[in-house]
Specification:
The protein has about 200 residues and is of the alpha/beta class. Helices cover about 40% and strands about 10% of the residues. α1 crosses α2 and α4 crosses α7. The longest helix is centred in the N-terminal third of the chain and has 18 residues, at about 35-55. The N and C termini lie far apart (about 60 Å). The structure holds zinc ion (ZN). Zinc ion (ZN) binds near residues 57 and 59.
Length: about 200
């Protein structure tokens, strides 16, 4: 490789993306450079637009365009009395594509963990409690991962909701230990939803 700092910088950034190492980052950068007009130009524009206009909804944690109302919130045309709590948007997409669940989502944006700096405030748990109270929600499904962090987070949420009357349930046992929702196949996900267990109040 020649040492061209602009290219090195781009390779470094792209190799931070999920599933990509330095080798695939190099291939991507070469592809980009060889397709300046078809790829680099529109991609630069699209990235700028996303950077400027897309943010996380402070109410439900979903992504929204700053110029529109949030689709994931209670303002949407579908009214539900159920909220499914997930760690991230990829989890929501997996659950949606399995078609097992119709209701609102609440996206935490992470988990409570002692090993990272994720703050409880960032997980929008207060706004989850607000949503439950304001919208006559009857059930909250905790669909966090079967990891230590996921289960700690679920326990914390359960505790935060104890002063509401909402029914709280958890995806069924049978999720593989360490299983992250986004990596589950539809069959496992569907049976985990169908056999979800109510948690004692
Ligand atoms: Zn929202």
């Amino acid at each position: 490789m020649q040492n061209i700092s602009e290219i090195d910088e781009l390779i470094k950034l792209i190799s931070k993306l999920p599933g990509l190492g330095p080798k695939s980052a190099k291939r991507i950068v070469l592809k980009l450079i060889n397709n300046r007009e078809e790829l680099i130009k529109p991609m630069t524009k699209a990235l700028t637009e996303v950077y400027k206009n897309i943010s996380r909804c402070k109410n439900c944690g979903s992504l929204k365009s700053n110029s529109n109302r949030c689709n994931g919130c209670e303002s949407s045309k579908n009214k539900y009395n159920i909220i499914c709590v997930v760690e991230n948007i990829a989890d929501q997409w997996s659950i949606e594509s399995s078609s097992i669940y119709k209701g609102y989502f609440h996206i935490l944006g992470g988990t409570i963990s002692s090993s990272n700096n994720q703050k409880k405030e960032d997980l929008l748990i207060d706004s989850l409690v607000e949503r439950v109270k304001k919208n006559n929600i009857e059930e909250v499904i905790l669909a966090t991962s079967a990891t230590v962090e996921g289960q700690t987070t679920a326990f914390y949420i359960q505790d935060s909701l104890k002063n509401t009357n909402v029914k709280i349930s958890k995806l069924a046992q049978g999720l593989p230990v360490g299983g992250e929702i986004e990596n589950l196949d539809d069959g496992t996900l569907i049976s985990a939803f169908k056999n979800r267990q109510s948690l004692p109040k």
